[in-house]
Every structure is written in C-alpha cells, then in structure tokens.
Amino acid sequence: MENIIQLDKVTKKFGGITALNKASLHVKKGEVVGLIGDNGAGKSTLIKTLVGVYSPDEGHILIRGKNVNSWNALKAREAGIETVFQDRALTPQQSIVKNIFMGKELRYPFGFIKEKEQIKEANRLIREIGFTSNLINADSPVGNLSGGERQGVAIARAIYNNAELIVLDEPTNNLSLNETQKVFDFVLNVKKSNRSVLFIGHNIYHVYDISDRFVILDRGEVVHELNKRSVSSPEELMKIMRETIVRH
Amino acid sequence: MNNKSFINNMFHKNGRALGSIGYFILLMAIFFIGAPEAWIRPNLHQSVFVMMPTLIFLTIPLVFLVASGEIDLSFASTYAVAAYVFALLVKIGIDPGICFVAGLLTGAAIGALVGTLIVVFRLSSLVASLGVLFLLRGVILLLTNSRSITIMQVENHWIYPLLVGKFYGFPMQIFWAAIFIIFCYYFFNKHVFGIHIQHVGDNSVSAEQMGINVNAVKIKAFMFVGVGAALGGMFTTMITYTFFPTQGFGYLLLALAAVFVGGTPYWGGLGTIIGAVFGVGVIAYMEVGIIAIGWSGEWRQFFNGLIILLALLGHRLHGERVR
Ligand SMILES: Nc1ncnc2c1ncn2[C@@H]1O[C@H](COP(=O)(O)OP(=O)(O)O)[C@@H](O)[C@H]1O
Ligand SMILES: [Mg+2]
C-alpha cells in the first residue's frame, strides 16, 4: 500500500534540546497509526515537522513517495493533510466560521470571501460534530466556547477539507466521555472512507482502541513499532511501552 | 438562533464602532450647543473637509496594522518622503500622473522596508518605527535643505481636478476618501487579506499552523500603511501646491488617536473601519470645534487627551480580550 506520508531520519533541535533524533515514521492509506510516548517525548514536534510547521534540521519528508522541498504548513494542507494541533490553533476573538475556514477560506476571484457559503457550511459542520449547544451559532467568537466546543471547531476544520490524512494531537484531552466517543466515531469514519489518521495520545486506552499500528517515541527517538495484531490488550501495550522506554 | 445571542453577537461585532459613533454624536452635540451660530457656518466644515480625507488615508491603514498586532509611527515621515518624490518629479517636468504612481510606490517600498526590518529581526515595531520616523525626517531635511517645493503646474494637469478639484463645488478629495473607506471596509471584513490580518493579530502561532504566512501578512500591512501615508502626503501637497519638509509630523499623534478613539483595541486581532471613520471625525472636529466655540487652541490637546482616555475606558467596558 502507498505511503501517504513518510518522515525519513528527521532531526529537530531547539537550541540545545534535541526534540527529534533521526525519527522515521510513515502512514499508509486507510490506516490509523497511534503515536505514543511520555510527555516531552517529542510527539508534537514530530507532527509539527510532518505538517510543515517546523522545518527539520536533518532528514527528509516524503509525500506519496516523493521528496518534498521547502515544505510548509500551507503546502501540507494543499497536499490533503489536516491537523488538529494540541493547542487547537484557534484565534479566540474571531468567529467560529472564520476559525473553521482559517487559511483555507472559500474565495471568489481576487480573494473576496464567500461569506454566506462559509456560514452555511460551518453550521452544517457544527451540527455534524454535535459538539456545540444550539445556542451557539457560527458567528459567535470562539473565545466564548468551552474546551470541548473549541475542540469541536478544530475538528470541524479538519473534517471540512476531506483530507487524505488527518493528524490528531491529543484530541481527547479534557473531553467528556461523550465527546471522546464522538472523536472515536469520527476517526472510524475517516478510516471507513479509506483515508488515514495519525492519532497522538498519552492515554494508552484511547490509542489502543482505534489504532491499527503503534509507534512508540521516547526522548525524540522512535524506539518501537508494532501492529495491533501483536498486542492483545491495552495493558500489554502499556507494558511493552514501559519496557522499551526503560531499556532505551 | 435565539434573540439574545443574536443581539450579543451584533454587539460583539459592532460594539466598538458604535462606541466611537457615540463619541462623535456627543461631540457634535456639545459643539452645536456651545456655538450654534459657528456650527451652521459652512467654512467651519470646509476646513474639516480638507483635513478629514488626509486623516482617513492615514488612519484606516493603521487599523489594519494594529489589528495585525503591530504599530507604525514612521508613516508620518513616509508621508513627507512620498510627497517629496512626487513634488520633485513634478518640478523637473515629469507627467504628474506618473509622479503620483511613483509616490505610491515610494510609500509601499518604505512600508515594505520597515515591515521587513521589524518582522525579520523581530524588533519592537513601536521602537523601530520611531527610529525610522526620525531617520526619514532627517533624510528629508538634509535633501531639501529644509526648503519647500512649490508645484503650481499640477493645476494644469488632469490629475488635479480629478483628485483634489471641485465637482460642482464638492471637493473631490472627499469623494476619494469615501471610495477609500468603502474599499477598506470590504478589504478588511470580506477579503482574505483583512481576515488573515485578524487571525495573525489574534494568535500568530495559530495562524502560522494553519498555513498563513504571518510575516508576509504583516509586511503587507506595513506596505498598506506606507501607501496610505503616500496618498495623504500627495493629496495635501496638491491641495496646497506646496511640499514642505516638515509636513506630516502634525498628523502623527492625530492619526494614532483616531485609530484608538475609533474603537480598534491596541492588542491585535480586532479592528473597525467604520469606527475609525468616526474616530477621524472626532479628532478632526476637535481641531476646529474648540476654536469655534470660542475656547483657545490649547484646549484641543487637553480634550484630545481626555477623549483617548475615555476611549480606553470604553475598550475596558466593552470587555477584556478573550483568549
Ligand atoms: N518551540 C519549542 N521551543 C523549544 N523547545 C521546544 C519547543 N517545542 C518543544 N520543545 C521541547 O522539545 C521536547 C519535546 O516536546 P513535545 O514535542 O511538545 O513533546 P510531546 O508532545 O511528546 O509532549 C520538550 O523537551 C520540549 O520542551
Ligand atoms: Mg504534545
């Protein structure tokens, strides 16, 4: 099967800190990959490098098998990769609709914005996600929303573009059980339509349930990779993770 | 959608502009009550109409820049540099239409330089643009030997009646300022440029992660301020037929005051074009109104200061920055 995206021996340093050390990772079409590791392991740095927010100090990024140069966040989105960042990447003073279409506005020629269409689509997405109460409409500022609702906006944005690969960085943090289930449903829907998900979390139970394959990251290095088939339970995955990290 | 949230949203979207409209109406009422006979004399409003278009050209682009999270003081010198380029080229006999374009390009180029300097080296825009303000003014004074340039010849060119002439007694610069306001309203609220500016000023990390080129957006906002300054400088130079090397300096604080009195908060992410128009109205009428009601000019500064403080309190009443 084709690799949607591949990181090849990528190193990323922040001053003296080596956040990623020759890390390699790939995601295939129709696959859900769970990226796990402790806080500070470099998970967020890895995905930010993958989606063009950070440029790697060493190593390569390949999209559908082809090396990309001067990779950046806009190119990643244009290549069909959408990301729900750990910090949600929202602009709280702006409306829900502006946030959903941030950076990928629906445009007339010369860059004027199709406002009506955006509002219509935003309302549809909000209903589809089912995160927000009926009192909230697409015109209200994101800053008025609860944590779960903000998360919903970030996910709505990722849904809208029908991305080939959706990257979710700790998407279930601070969510209620009900909301967490909605995120899972969403991931399963993406998988069903033969698209891919890269799911990051430090809650092993969440990652275990929905992933086909696991990648364990520790102190910037990919220390282990295993298929769902070779792990029988989240507890076993947890044990494997502990052992590899201790040995590393 | 229920009614309450609709009203809340209306207020959220337009409250800051409404505040500055309120100030304007209040000011007009005070002046009218204070000096009704001066108020109905047309020449009072005429002097406002000379000043207002220039202030509009300066203030509205600043709304874009402040909304992007930056500030610029150098526009008051860019104003003079662009006007100098324009006047000099007209003087040596080049077609004033071409000179006008050259002035606009000068403004854009200075804006691009200032913006690039600030964005690339991560300088404080307040301090860096203060430096550029003095530096450019120094350059102008040195180049001109502090002497002004008179360009009576522009009157015979089509550009003069088109831009600053009278159309059945109506000053054309008001017409162009109105076009500018409408254009900027759509540019800020309905165009990718304005929307990206708001995202960048609100949270530049989020904007960057969503693929918006933050630096490019900011540099473009600085360029727009440069273009606005060039428009202001050239219009004034044409109206008075004279470039003089200190011109523009007097607008520095007035234009900045108009931005904030106009309801654009200082912290970035938000801005209002309509509010800025009324902010300009408040500032421009303050300049003439105080005299008209028979007070001495010294009171102008006092009231300008007072109204800026009131505007800040207005921001506070309207609510803290949401995060
Ligand atoms: N922008 C940054 N500047 C400096 N250090 C960073 C930055 N981002 C991450 N780091 C550091 O890199 C390491 C990995 O962080 P991160 O990728 O956020 O880990 P994780 O997402 O797995 O918790 C940490 O030590 C963190 O402090
Ligand atoms: Mg993280």
Question: Overview of this structure, please?
Answer:
- The complex is a heterodimer of chains A (248) and B (323).
- Chain A is an alpha/beta fold and 248 residues long.
- In chain A, 34% of the residues lie in helices and 26% in strands.
- Chain A has a single domain (14-224, 235-247), classed as P-loop containing nucleotide triphosphate hydrolases (Rossmann fold, 3-Layer(aba) Sandwich).
- Chain A has helices at 43-50, 73-78, 96-100, 115-129, 147-160, 177-192, 204-210, 234-247, and strands at residues 3-14, 17-28, 32-36, 58-63, 66-67, 81-84, 165-169, 196-200, 213-218, 221-227.
- In chain A, helix 4 (115-129) packs across helix 5 (147-160) and helix 7 packs across helix 8.
- The longest helix of chain A has 16 residues, at 177-192.
- The two termini of chain A are 31 Å apart.
- A two-stranded antiparallel sheet of chain B has the order 1-4. Chain B has a two-stranded antiparallel sheet with strand order 2-3.
- Helix content of chain B is 76%, strand content 2%.
- The mean pLDDT of chain B is 91.
- Chain B is built from 14 helices and 4 strands.
- In chain B, helix 3 runs parallel beside helix 8, helix 3 (42-67) packs across helix 9 and helix 4 packs antiparallel against helix 5 (96-120).
- In chain B, a hairpin with a 2-residue loop joins strand 2 and strand 3.
- With 323 residues, chain B is mostly helical.
- Chain A binds chain B through residues 48, 52-53, 72-77, 83, 85, 87-94, 98, 102-105, 107, 111-113, 115, 135-137, 139-141, 143-144, and chain B through 1-2, 5, 8-9, 12-13, 186, 190-193, 195-196, 198-199, 202-203, 205-213, 269-270, 321-323.
- The structure holds adenosine-5'-diphosphate and magnesium ion.
